[in-house]
Amino acid sequence: MQKTVVLGVTGCVAIYKACEVLRGLQKAGVRVKVVMTKNATEFIQPAMFRALMREPVAVGLFDDAPGDPIHHISLAKEADLFLVAPCTANVMAKLAHGIADDLLTTTALATTAPIAIAPAMNVNMYDHVATQENMQTLKARGVRFIDAGEGYLACGDVGRGRLAEPDDIVAAAIEMLEVTHDLAGKHVLVTAGPTVEPIDPARYISNRSSGKTGFAIARAALNRGAKVTLVTGPVALGDVEGADMARVTTALQMRDAVDAAFDDADIAVFSAAVCDARPSNPSKRKLKKGADDEALMHIELTENPDILATMAGRKRPEQVVVGFAAETENVVANARAKLERKHADMIVGNLVGEGRGFATDENEVVFVYADRERRLPLMNKDDLAHAILDEALEKLE
Ligand SMILES: Cc1cc2nc3c(=O)[nH]c(=O)nc-3n(C[C@H](O)[C@H](O)[C@H](O)COP(=O)(O)O)c2cc1C
């Protein structure tokens, strides 16, 4: 059956590229229905899209659509994918907060189809904490972002915020339309984030893991039909809707939550950055500089349980265990040593530090096996999540 993309078009300079996106989708055999914001019509007349689509263009919430009194609901139901390209900072903010004050945003709220966003804006608008928080909110809800790298912007600035190339937007949309439920009936266990090991009620030992990769894997597995358990350390990310969430703090708590879910899991992906050690005797009261210098300057540590090694050591032959190795050097050699030491099926090795890996939205990794390795290009964490699940599924079958 022919798939339908509802293409949301918003008010920004990159709007001319929406015509190419529309044409690209049509060439791929997709039916496209365009919804414009009122401000978008300040940049391009609806007639342009009407000519390319040979269908009416929807703009006003209260316009009379022929034979269709509640246009936002019919559009919402028709969509196999709701794609906003280009998406302004304004529409992104509205979508993040459930605001529905025009046809585009009301349709977005009414649809149950997957949503993809290709942002386009000035670098300062893109980097603004409000925009970044809105993006995180939407990502946590499973909205897919199709981002360009850095580049020259229409305003003359250089940086993030440039609309992705139309070909890349079309390719991502097609991929989303074709997503199969190839993990239906499978249970995927994912660990994410750092662990936090208290020294006293105020101080702790932890690391820079943001949890973004693990959360992306959980979302991708859910989209592919899996039952998902997500065990996460403290992170600034909202719950993954549909996943069985276990929020923990310490490595010992993470071990217990993983222990409870592991035997039932078909695939277990250990992306959490578990602290190797914890303070042996965390103080119940805040240690005082001066009076408690001895305790503060000589923190005795106890090794934490190795969750990956413990679980992989007891895995059944039909279970697949994937580990992560974040390294600052010799990624492949270190990842292979970890694979052998911990009896995992695969290690995802990645270079971290100097702006790479932790807390970024992109990553460049290498899949390391006992007898071979596969290098992947730099990709966003959503694409990486699917690549990891593809690999795990292949091992499972
Ligand atoms: C010439 C011009 C270019 C603009 N370019 C952008 C842009 O690239 N990205 C963006 O988020 N807003 C841009 N804006 C601001 C938006 O048009 C403005 O926030 C508007 O309220 C967006 O409306 P909409 O989100 O309902 O389409 C631009 C405004 C003008 C006048």
How many discrete domains?
2
Task: Give the oligomeric state of the chains in this entry, treating copies of one chain as homo and distinct chains as hetero.
Answer: single chain
CATH class descriptor of the largest domain: Alpha Beta
> Could you tell me the radius of gyration in angstroms?
24 Å
Give the integer mean of the pLDDT values: 90
Main sheet specs: 8 strands, mixed
Distance between the termini: 28 Å
Provide a count of the helices: 14
Q: What's the count of strands?
A: 21
Largest sheet strand order: 12-11-8-13-16-17-19-20
Q: Beta-sheet strand percentage?
A: 15-25%
The CATH architecture of the largest domain would be 3-Layer(aba) Sandwich
Helix content: 25-40%
What does this structure look like?
This protein has 397 residues and is an alpha/beta fold. It has 2 domains: 4-177, Rossmann fold (3-Layer(aba) Sandwich), CATH 3.40.50.1950; 187-396, CoaB-like (Rossmann fold), CATH 3.40.50.10300. Helices cover 35% and strands 21% of the residues. It has 14 helices and 21 strands. Strands 12-11-8-13-16-17-19-20 form an 8-stranded mixed sheet, sandwiched between helices. It has a 5-stranded parallel sheet with strand order 2-1-3-4-5, with helices on both faces. Helix 1 links the parallel strand 1 (4-9) and strand 2. It is globular, with a radius of gyration of 24 Å. It starts with a strand and ends with a helix. The relative contact order is 0.09. The structure holds flavin mononucleotide (FMN).
